[in-house]
Every structure is written in C-alpha cells, then in structure tokens.
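Homework help thread (please don't just give me the answer)

Our assignment gives two proteins as sequence + structure token strings and asks us to describe the second one. The first is just a warm-up. Here they are:
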Amino acid sequence: MRSIVSISLLVRLYLIICLVSCSEAKFAGADSIVGDSIWMIESKANLKKMAYSGEVTPEKRYIALGFDDFRTSDFSLVIPLLNKYGAKAEFNRIHYSADVTDEERQLVEMVLNNGHELGDHTWKHYSYIFDAPLFNGQNPDSPEGNQVPFPSNSQLRDDVGNGKNAFGHMLSEPVKVTLGSQAPSIDATWSNLTDEECQYIREYFSVMKDRKDVIERTPLVRRLVDIDDNSDLIDILDNLSNTYLGTSGSSNGSWSREDGCYKGGIFTGCKTSANHEIWERILLVTKLFVQDKFHVDLYTWSWPGSKSSMCVFPSNGKLYYDSQNKQLFNNLAKFTSSLFRTKDGEYKTRSWTDVLKKMGYLSTHDATYPGRRDGQTLPCMSYQYIMNASQSRPDALIYSTNRCVDYSKIASEYEKDKSFIGKESLEVQMYDRGGTFRDAIETWRKHTANGIIWGEVIDSEDTWSEGIILEGLLKYGTTTGIEFVTKSEAYDISFNHSLIEGNLIYNPHLRNTAKEFLPESKTVPSNPDGYEGDCSVENEDDIPVLVTNDTTVYHHFGIPCGNIHYEAVVKGKGFIRVRFIKNSTDINSIGSSELVCERKIDSEKQYCINNMDFTVPTNDMTPYEQRCAGWGNKIIGIRLEYSGGLRIKNIMMCKK
C-alpha cells in the first residue's frame, strides 16, 4: 500500500511542478492528512499580483469594476468600451466542464491580453456549496443505509413552537425554498413534505447530490428534472480531483463502513459529506485547472448570484447555520473539518473566507457579508478597501460590492424610449431622468471622495441601454479623474500604500464632479463630492468656499493612527465636531458615535483660522467575533460635522 501511495504521490507532485512552471502560483509538497491514502497539496501562492503601477495620492479616486458570468456582451461590448477609455476590470468566469474549448481559451486570452483580470465565479454558478455548508444530504453519522441526514425531516416539517419549523417557516405555508431556475417546485406545505421531498431539499443544497439516484427513486423529480442539466456537479469535481489530486473513482457510493470515510472522488477521506469538508479541494483543483488550461492563476472570487437556501435557523432577528445559534449565517462562520489538519495534528476549524485566504485569493465580492444576511442587526461597517494601508481592514477579502449598475432593472428606463429628444447631451438626459445612471454617479462621487475604493459588480446584457449607460459612466470617470482598476489593483492600493504626508482630505478643492461632467444639468445637487447635507460651494478670489445652510457631514475613511491636526479658515456662528468611526459602528448611527472634539465658531464678520488636534488610537484586536473578524474596535475614519451658517475654506488635515 505504501509503495503504491508513493508512486501516486510522485506522479501528483510531477503534475504540480509542471503546472507551476507556467504560472506565478507555487504549490508546496504534499502533507499527509488522513492515514496513508489521502494527500493534499496546499497552496503557497506567490503574492505578486496585478500591482497598481500609478502613484497613490489623497486626491486620486478609484472604482473596481467586476463583470460576472462571462456573458457574450462582455466581449462584444464591454471590453471594447473599457479599452476605449483606458479602464480595467475583472471578468469572473463560470466553470461548466472539466475541459475547455478553443473558443473559451480565446475569450480568456481576450481578457488577459487587454490588461483585465480573470476571476473565479464557481462551478456551474452554484452558491449552495458555500452558503449552506452544513447541508449534506447523506451525513454518515451511522453506516450507509441507516443515516441521520441534516437537516432532519423533523426539522423541516415538525412544529417547534408557534406553528413554525426549526427554520422559522410557518408549517401551513407552501414551500418556497429557492432551488434554482431548473429545479422543480415542491407543491406542498412544510408540514406535508414527504420523506422524498425532504431528501430532495437536502440533496439540492449539498454538493454530494446525485441527481441520477434521486430521479430513479423520486417520482416528483423524475417528472420535472432534466438529468443532463442537473446531475454533473459532483461528477465534475470528482473528475478534477482525480486528475489533479490523484484520487480515483466517485464520491457517491464510496462510503466505507469499516474505515468511516469516503474512499473515492473529491470526498476521499472525509468522515462526512457536509459541503465545508472539501472547500480547500474545490479551490485547489480550480486553481490547478485554470493554470493547466489557461496558464494563469486566480486571485479573485465572485459569489454567484444564485439565491440562498433560506433554510437557516432564526433567533432574535438574526440567522444562524446551526440550531444552537452559534454559527452566524455569513462567510466568517467557522466549521471544524474531519479531513484537514493543522501542523500540530489538530483538525482545522476554518471559515469559507479562511479557505479563500489560504489558497491565495485576494478578494471576493457580492458576498454573504456579516450584518447583511443575518437580519442586518449586527453593527459593522462594510468598507474594507480604504485608500490607506494603515486603515484597510485585514478581513478585506470580503469586499462588499454593490449593483448600482443593474441592467436587469433599467430596461423600462431606457429600452422602450431610445429617442432622447432634447438639446441636452445624452448623459445629461439620462442623469436628469433619474434611475440607474444618476444613482451610480451620485454613489461613486460620494464614496470615492470619502476614501473608499468603490466596488461594483455587473451582470452585463447585450442591449442598447447597457452600451449608452456603461459608456456614459466611463466618460464620467475618465473625464473627472476616477480610475477604473482591477480587484487585485484595488487590493494593492489598499494594502501596500500608506497616505501619511500632506493634506489627507480626499476632496480638498470641494469639487462637484457631477456638475463638472454635466454642466448643463439642472438637477445636480449643490453639495461637493463626499459632503452630505444642505450645502453648496462658492468661489471667493478663486478659492472654493463650503457654504452650510444646515448640518453638513464629511466622512473621512482612512485617517491614519496617531496625532492628527485639523485646520480650516471659517466665518460664521456655529460649531465643527469630530467623531470617530469604528468598524463596529452601525453605518446608520454614525451621528451618535463617540464625540472626539468640538470647536465653537463665533466670527460672523471675518474669517478666522480654526484648528483642532486629536489622537487616533491604535486599538487592540478584540477576541474573535463574527463581525469584523475581531477588528470591531478599530477606528477606520472620522466624521466631520459642520453646523449650518458657516463658510469654510482651506480645509486641511495632516499627521503631526
């Protein structure tokens, strides 16, 4: 047995070496994980990525664009437009097969040869492997054929109180669990689910599903499910594991009662078929597959848009993976493996985010962010990518991105009316109409002037609307000084550049880039970029002056730790206040956060220099918590509050 394993190991190591020679990633030697029959090559990825080549200054602004799915219009429309305006982006590929066609290779080459980045968008667009990690379908707590599956039939259809099942669903309600676009609906209430339907729900959310087996024994599924479309995810993963990791056979049907583990496929050596058992292997075989087929490494991961299972345990307005309400429903929830061990021989306890980091991934976006999918009750800022290495968060892998540019929602805005009759420019008309184009510009100009590298994820569609809106936004960015960068470049800007010299205010000249871009528009708000409230800008002797008619706020993310000096020339009667923003600050309650210092202004006839000195402490990490990965007490910015009735110019903030 040992000699066979040694030969197999040598073959696998030779394959790894061959793959590494044509990529930047480096994979170390194999470590024994479980007994003599299972091995794992762990990623030791070289952290040299797509580094940002420009100079990072407080007056620069950045947008990190991502396009999901590898859609046709990404290549016919999006890449040509990006190239026209000198913009870069990330394109996240879905992997459908363990092989690739010449056409697929050409698409990847088009992405890379034009300076863009290739991202990982999962296998077959399934999110269930990652956001429902405890689902297994056939948990071998007892010998096969007499299993106790999770979730149990009782948890799905029995009353645990108030007429609800363990997942908080009313038993009298129809089952509305999202099973995907090609999955059958279950025509039953929760209380009336059959054993077969309970098993189908379990298997759908488990990577361990075997649709051929389900179809053979379940009339409901046999009637409604297309085998070709739904039976091959575990087959693909087994194929990849057998090709790149030296396993053999298939996972399904390989459970060994004697050894208490699976003997075949990607689940080889696992003592349970819960999804989190093979997280590392999925990422590893994906990296090796992409290196083998496209000669490039993967550093970014995009959460697929598939709906979550919603079979999570509710408690006090929050959602949990487990009935004990200890594992919050987010990417930071840690699970103990029965397969992967530490150097000390202990079984690893890790989250999906931990696994992504271990495999060399720099960022993920559109993710299950803490505080977002648990009822939004946990206070936690969602700004990890800050234009200052001294304040960017160490858990920044979870890059909370948004869909301001959502083409699925804008057809009614533009597609039916392509005339745009009027004297104003096309961009002015789109902005003044409101909707997607205006929302994107207003969001981008606000956050980029606050020091955030704004992330945007887009599902492109080959429509006239997409072309005019995307080109308009690219025009806005490039003509006003916003740079469009890849996700790896955003990571490099955030973590390898520290802004500690000169004036650290991100919009010192009080620019209103929407007004600069759309001078003919009559609907552009008067507030300069980054400032919120009833305010405007006037010029006095060619010096911009902030005029506050009511309370005006400027959020400054990325202010460095240490002694800080604030200074401004002010006229009027009122106050200027400084508040700290912590990671644990609820984004909706920043106004009630800790007051650091206050300067009263009483100079209505002439301008006076007003200054404040304060210290930004370097707070220690708190014990590990689900929110902010223990960095909840870390200060990531300040809130400047100006009362109404002030005229302010020459605003400066610097490190003393």
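The one we have to describe:
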Amino acid sequence: MEHMNDQDWWRGAVIYQIYPRSYQDSDGDGVGDLPGIARRLPYIASLGVDAIWISPFFKSPMKDFGYDVSDYCDVDPMFGTLADFDKLIETAHGLGLKVMIDLVMSHSSDAHPWYQESQSSKDNDKSNWYVWADAKPDGTPPTNWLSIFGGSAWEWHPGRCQYFLHNFLTSQPDLNFHEPQVQDALLDVAKFWLDRGVNGFRLDTINFYVHDKELRDNPALPAEKRNPITAPAENPYTWQEHLYDKNRPENLAFLRRLRALMGRYNAAAVGEVGDDQYGLKILGEYTSGDDLMQMSYAFELLSLNVPTALYVKSVMDQMDRDAPDGWACWAYSNHDVPRHISRWNLSQDAVRAYLMLMMCLRGSACIYQGEELGLPEAEVAFEDLKDPYGIRFWPAFKGRDGCRTPMVWEKSNNTGGFSTGKPWLPVSPDHLNLVPELQEQDPAALLHTYREAIGLRRTYPTLAKGEIDQVAVQGDVLRFVRHHEDEEMLCIFNLGDQATTLPDEAVLGWDAITETFDTFGPWQVALFRRSLEEEA
C-alpha cells in the first residue's frame, strides 16, 4: 500500500469507474447502492487498481441519473446514507484503494434550493447564481448556443421573463461562475467531501464551468472539420465551434482555487474535457504546472473508429505538440459511450493488445466496470430505455443505456447476482456467461489478463510515471520508448491481423519482459527493458 502515501499517487494510476446504479444492489430495489459497492471492493482491489471513481450518488431528481444534483452534500436515499459512504471510504482505504467521487459543478438540478431561490425574482440573494439573460428584441434566445442534449441551450422562464442557460437538459441550469459566491459555495462542497476522506474528484464537464460574459455567438464549423466526439453526428451541436459557451480562459482562476484546496489534503482531480476540436489543447492548459488539475480525461481513445497504430501515433504527437507538460487520463469505455469491445468489434486477442497498450501509454488510465470481463454493449429495447438522450434521438442514436446495464457477478439468477429484485435496466443475457465466478476458474479468461497488465504497471514504475518518446509506426506496428530515472522500456504492438517480424537490430541491447517469438503475430505485444545505470 505504499502508493497510499505517495504525493504523486495519481500519476500513472489505474482508476476503476463505478456507475453506482448498476454495480451491486444490496436491498433488492433493483438499483445499485453504496453498501453494494462496499461489498464488492475486495474484488476491485484484487484487480490491482489504485483508485475507484464513483459516478454521482448525491440527492437528485434523477432526470439525468445523478448528473442533476439537488443537494451536493448528501446521499440520495436510493444509494444509501452518509454513514454508508463513510463505511465505504473506510473499507476502501483498508484495502489500499483511493476514492474519487464525481463532482458536477457546471450545473445543478432545477430542484436545487439555490436555483429555486434564483428563479423566484431578479433581486433575491441568489438571483445571479445561474446564467440568466434577456431575450433578443425579437424574443429569441440571447445567443445561438446549443445544448448537447439537442435544441437551444437557452430555456425561457416566464417568471423572470428571461432565458436561463442549460448546456444539457432544461432541468440542469448552468451555474454562474462569474459570481464569486458561486465559486465559494462550490469550494465548500469540495471541502465537505475532502473532510470525509475522499482522495480526489472526477470533475464533470470541467471546461463548461465559465461562459462568455459578453454572450457572443459561436461561429459555424465547416462540415469537413466536424468531429463528433462529445455528441453524436445526428446532433447539430457538432456544427458549431464552441468558443463562447465553454473553453473560456477565465476558468483557470477557479481551477487554481480548487487545486489550492485539494493540496491541503493530498487530493487529485481528473477533469473531463469535452471538446471535439480543442480537447488535447485544453488538457494541456488545465494540467500543466503544479497549480491546476493533475489530470484531464481524454476523449481521443473513446473514438468511434478503431484506434489504428497510425491514429495512436497521431494522438501521441498531438499530445507532444499541444500538451507537452500535461497529463492525460486515458479510457476506452465509460458510462457515456458504447463499450469498446462492441464499438470497435474486437476479437479477444485485440482486446488484450489494446489493454496492454493502455497500460503502457504515458498518462493515467480509467477502466469502466465490466470492461475487465469483456462485457459487450447490451441491446436495450426502446420500451426499456431510461436515458433521455437516447429517447430523444432514437433510433439514429440509441443513447447510453447499453453501456449502463447492471454488472454481472454470478450465474445464480437472471440478474447475474446484481439484485434480488427487478433491475432498473434489464441484464443482458450475453453477459451471464462472462461473470467473474466463471472467469476466476478459467486461467485463459480476460479477467486474469487485466490483473496481469495492471500488475506490470505496478512492477515497472517507468510504465506508470515515465516519459514517452521515439513513437514510430510501420504498417500496423506501433512502437515507443518509455523512460524514467535509470530505466528505459521499449513497447511494441502489432495492432493488426497480419503477422510480421521484428528486426533483430530493433531489439538489440534490450532484455525481453514478455515472451518473444520469431514471428510477431497479429495483436501481439512485445515489451523490453534496459537499465541505463548498467550501460553507464
């Protein structure tokens, strides 16, 4: 448990994301909860990960399943109590796991008392806590800004005779970060959870905090430049260059205040930067130096298309160009995108190769629950959908429920051991043969590969904390060097279906870590190391 006292514990950490509604139900109501998570912490610890990230469990009307918060400092009853959370923290720390929680600070629920007061008049104490603006002379919204969930980002409020800003659902009004009292209140929220023992935060939509105070329109984005990462192609949100509704330079001042607070607790944060064009550039801005965020959650490997060797090199090159001093947190899957084994239509060998790639990249890594079991995207019928995003854009975009179905544990019943009641989303029958109960008994199962790959990162600090250079591609083969203190590691990946050979001179002077063969087969990985101290 040495990493528990490491000031840089976050650098190269492997973080396991938990979607609490779907992890483990402890009381039979069909919804996962905090006691359920606590029950499964030994399993998570057995993977060798450094930390868990728990998606929102705060009080909420659940119109966006917890990303619409009505009380930042309490647990929604469906997930348990503050005492349950304290017990979870104690159990996790006892197992050597850091605990990160998902703070949603760019917006609240419209049921939050802050908003209820703000919307009541133009002259109350919190009248400026949300983003209010007058209509244009013709009654239309103040700007052309669009909501990620479709339509205008502005909603008319008849009581105030003004529009309010919502980058997501109309029930998620945006907080006004130009108001100092809002910043102070949100820092108090962070302090509340830090005092309870959390080790850090995943910061939802971190680049959305501050809006353009002058309310300028976003320029149009030519079709050839559209890159649908944060929203599907069916959503015209991708048709704008988002210069003014997010990504504002004024955001940095608040992030410095937050980092100063976290520094008193040795806490770390990973900020979710959602932007189709400037993601890595913003990542560099938000994570460079020691007074901003430690990590930013990168979307480049959450792409729709399979990340080829050439694509991965282009991402590394862009990191070197736009964020040379920044630190990424890479992920292939999460609660917002189809599971990568289905999204990329991967074979088991390919899944293993991409796992090893993630464990060797410079940056930290996020694993989404069930990824370690190889769970495919679940098919959810329209009548079973809960996600408002999917309901809005069905059938062109089926929403996010397919990656949010309950975790499976055992073949004891048709819910995979998730619940004794009816799950809030149906359990996929395709998942029941992939439960940990069965994989533990199969030495060739993917679950063991995840443990081994994560273990390599623990064994070789160079993979966790080292720099990266000499990134090169030849056909489907990607190679790069990691170096840290007196050690170098050579990492070579065949990200294709064709066998090739590794020239002897390419690996001359290196000691093999993985098994080597005369032929470098499809989806094979070769790792080597050498000590610079020995060479000297």
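TA reply:
I won't write it for you, but here's a hint about the kind of observation we're looking for: The mean pLDDT is 95.
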